[in-house]
Amino acid sequence: MKKALLFAVIGLLSFISFGQTDVTGSVKDSQGTPIPGANVYFKNSTSGGTTDFDGKFSFSTSLTGAQILQISYLGYTTVEKAVTLDGSPIELEIVLQEGGNMLDEVVLTATTTFRSQKESPLSITSINAKDLTKLNANSQADIVASIPGVVADGGGGEGATNIFVRGLPSGGQNDFSPIQFDGLTLAGYGLSSTAGDVYAKVDQGVKGVEFVRGGSSILYGAGSTAGIINYISKTGDTNDENIINIEVADVGRVKTEFYSGGQLGSADSNTFYAFSGWVRKDDGPLDFGLPSKGYQFRANIKKKFDRGSFTVYTQFLDDKSQFLLGLPLDGDSRERIAGNDGETVYQLNSSHLANTSFLTPAGEYRSPIEEGIWTRGFYAMSVFDYDLGDDWKIKTKVKVSDYINDFALYVAANGKANTPVTLNDYLDIQGFPGATNVNAAYVGGTALGSNDRIIDNLHVDRNRPITDYTGEFNITKKIVGDVVEHNINLGTYLAFSEGEDNNYQFRTLTAFNNEPQLVNLSFTDAGGNDVIFAQNGLTNRIGVTSNNYLSQERSAFYLTDEMILDRWRIDAGIRVEKQVARRENGGIGSAQVYDDPNLTSALQNVNFATGSFTRAEVSATGFAASLAALYNINDNLNAYANMSKGYFFPLTRSINVVRNDETAGTYDVENIYQYEAGLKYGQAKFSGTFAGYYTTLTDRVAIQRLNYGGTIGTVDGIKTVQDTKTVGVEASWDWRFIDDFSFNGNFTYQDHELRNDERTVLQSGTVDGVVLVEGTVTNGVNVGKQLRRQPKVLSTLRLDYDNSSLDAFASANIRGSQFNDDANLVELDGFTVIRIGGGYTIPFEDSKNLRLGFSVFNLTDSQGLSEGDPRAFAQATAGDFFVGRPILPRRMFFNATFTF
After folding, report:
1. Which of 132-141, 454-463, 560-569 has the lowest average pLDDT?
2. Cβ distance 294 to 315 under 8 Å?
3. Burial class of residue 698 (count of CB atoms within 10 Å of its CB; 0-12, 13-18, 19+)
4. Nearest to 515 by CA among 342, 674, 347, 369
């Protein structure tokens, strides 16, 4: 009913039309060169637009009387122009001078009025399209790793980036910071643990990205507690713009990106288009015989009315990327070690597992390991905004998305032999000392060498299709008084998501090499029985380990007021949201599929879905409130403070169903309180921010997946409920110390600890020699410890040179030491990732240009660890080996960008 009402409102309002004032003009630099993408907005309002490829702008406004038009672009000094709006067309020519600061950029996310970062009473970082192109990003981590207070782990390759914000103990991915495209999340946020960046792929059609942290972000983002990552799409304008970007890199990378935007039909059609995407193939970042490949197409069409616009966005995605987890390293240095062939082992993923298949009670199962993280699907979204007159405005957003995400997760060094061992040691570990007639050979026939080492591994195939329907409607009203101007926003958010969470698993025995070969193993045991322990490299055909159906409904209402006084800006708002979540757990049985007395039971028996289900439904209501204030001390300096109470719904997949309509424990929202105060300073040569913050999180629910070995495999092992606190300070700066030269960066220091730590065993089993009994609850064991995977020190330092023809940069991302576990027994050393790059732009006639550029990631080839063993219950801290995940090795990129 709510969805029907929302669509009805959109339909009725689409026929409303009123007149207003037309504002047109152009924006150029001091040399007369047009500036595309400049922000042109009336101060303290929602009226404005951006310049097109030729630096021209055109929009309409219902504002009247004396107004201030603000024109800004990153790297240029902001210009303010006084105009009088009386219904007569206005045409302006604006010239911007270089030397502006990073705080001049206008904020588009989590706000009702258009305002610069300097005028916003919360922490915001933006990255524009030009810098995104120069970055040659491997993953989402490369894009957000330079943001203050943010830890971004991209050691897994191109997908599934783990993002931690201001010490909040996320289980990984982007739990507390939803990823959006143009203001709405792309898939069912909060349904399962699938990382949002598998759906969010950047191309030349992205205008920029904004990361809003804390404060009012909790009011606008679905379930956001820490912030919002919002990618903003380009839309076409009155002049055509075309971009082709070709990127190549070592380890077999070839990628072509494109963008085309402009006007459809005649000059007075007021219909504009934008079309972008990419096609790629990549053997890296580490080559193990399974290349990444795929394509993306995105498009939008905008129709402008006298008082508003209607825009339709869409994306089609079919992309396969590879994912990397930890591997055994040297126990002392924790650096990579040599394999059987004497070559350094960078990973243990193997193309030899491609086309692995085995029989199950439901027929043949074929592993999609060669597909890696395979995401395919689409989203379609419409945005309608309209000026109703008398300072009333409405905006509606409606989105549907449908994706299938298959995640081939190869967990190397996972089993009883988690480190490389010789054949005799392996047989002892597996409980077969004194075995005779041992036959160990690589699949294909070659016998193992006497010193060859082998290792256990686990492969998990996750199948997670997801469908999502989302709608948002808000109405705004500006009320101008003698002392204060109110910008009131009343909105509602409705969403329905459904999906599946299906897992298949199997275990393998391989050699210890890069892209290791599979190993067959047979012998006669001490009892005289012939045993086939590994067949075609498989040691355990586990089969189905989860068969779940998930769905959730969200409904929210929010009310905000952005108040403007002489020297004050005050934001206040509340949000109430209810979630109803359902989980259906499919029954799993085991059957003997293979009838061979020499096979181990692990090879003969295969788990299967029985067709029975236990179902449960839970619900919870969350309440959020935010209050923020900014005071203009002088033209260059602002002081601000904000406080907020937010919430996060535990993942639907974390519901522990015990019987129909019954769950183990309660389903409560996770509450977070954030307090922040700081300064923002900006003038032509120097700009910067300084902030202190305090955050607490209560009732944080996380599920730790553990390797129980045997027939159990890797399953949801332990449920933790934690309370945390973090105290931190962060600073960012941009100093243009010489013309065309700037030094920018940020520094974060934070102190954090666990205040409560309750653990419940979800399934019985033995892991790392410890017997865990289902239902056992322990409390307070790690209270006072530092949060895992959260360094105390983070910093980014960067030098930039850009004279419009020649550009170059050198940056260092610095991360302090961190603990890999809640008990603080496993400490990982800090590390620094250095990146350099540069380019030369060749101008042609009619504003055409060609930029030739390069960049080098991890210049010094640092081997720092982003994490240890994520599935160990109690990771060993001493010995010959240490299982961990190193950051990605050095890689060089070249690209050519033609703009015409």
Report:
1. 132-141
2. no
3. middle
4. 347
Give the integer Cα–Cα distance in Å for 539 and 866.
30
> Which helix or strand (DSSP H or E) is residue 95 part of?
strand 90-96
Which of 282, 126, 62 shows the shortest CA–CA distance to 687? 126
Q: Tokens for 544? A: 């189905």
CA-based radius of gyration for the chain: 28
Rounded CA separation 16/387 (Å)? 9
pLDDT in tens, 619-634: 999 999 999 999 999 9
Tokens of 359: 């029989």
Q: 482-488 long-range CB contacts below 8 Å, 24 or more apart?
A: 483/565, 483/566, 484/563, 484/564, 484/565, 485/44, 485/563, 485/564, 485/565, 486/561, 486/562, 486/563, 487/44, 487/46, 487/112, 487/113, 487/561, 487/562, 487/563, 487/564, 488/559, 488/560, 488/561
* pLDDT tens-place string over residues 728-755: 999 999 999 998 999 999 999 999 999 9
Amino acid at 485: E
Tens digit of pLDDT for each residue in 253-306? 999 999 999 999 887 888 999 999 999 999 988 998 999 999 999 999 999 988
Q: Which residues pair with 461 in a beta bridge?
A: 408, 504
- Spell out a b/e string for 596-631, using b for 16 or more CB atoms within 10 Å of the CB, else e: eeebbebbbbbbbbeeebbebebebebebebbbbbe
AA letter at 171: G
CB 628 within 8 A of CB 641: yes
Q: What is the rounded distance in angstroms from the CA atom of residue 370 to the CA atom of residue 373?
A: 9
Residue 855, token pair as written in the block: 């960049």
